[in-house]
Amino acid sequence: MAVTGTQLRVDNLRGYAQGEIFLLNKAGEHLEAAVYNSTGFGPVPAGKFDAIDVQSLAADTGSDLAWKNPRRFWTMDAATVSLAGEPRELQGLMFNLMAKMQMPAGFDPGRDQSAMAYRPMQIGRVSKYEFLSGRPVFLLRSPEAITWVMQTFTDHIDHGLRESDLPDLAERLALPEGWQYKAVTLSQDLTITTSGVANIVPDHLANMYQGCVDGVNNFDPWD
Description:
2 helices, 223 residues, 14-stranded antiparallel sheet
């Protein structure tokens, strides 16, 4: 981990376990979220992360709600993220404030992100994700011919899912009509550079992908 000013850079991220907490406050009909992620403080232990109680956490932080994203594993090789605020200890674990966002309409804090499967959403983030040549990337393709690059996977729903299963993940996905999935071994480095808003989408197993839209990618890995 390296922190320069407000920028956090972490190398050797593939398979790195991370936990994420959303502190939510009502803003009219919407929920505004401060997104805290454990990346940068070492791989998060499953037991300690699972033990976080969101009801007491909301009360302790003065939030209307707290929501715990299932423990996830990064799929890129390195990432640089502009932090959105100061780090914070939440129930014994340290987290960086990675982003702020408005939660999508229909968000249900009683469910995980699989409830929003194949429904693109946006998150405020300044980041650079790096996927190195010779390494695999795992891709969705939407009916609009947009490529979505997996940024994290989780075994929260499919408890047997491992990184080694990702090349054949299509066999486990219930893809909507017009959606496709494939794994590609990169012939050049892929970078996804987000300067303010990231377009993201989950699959029905709650794995998360970032969209190659608005020029964030240096090339389209699907082609």
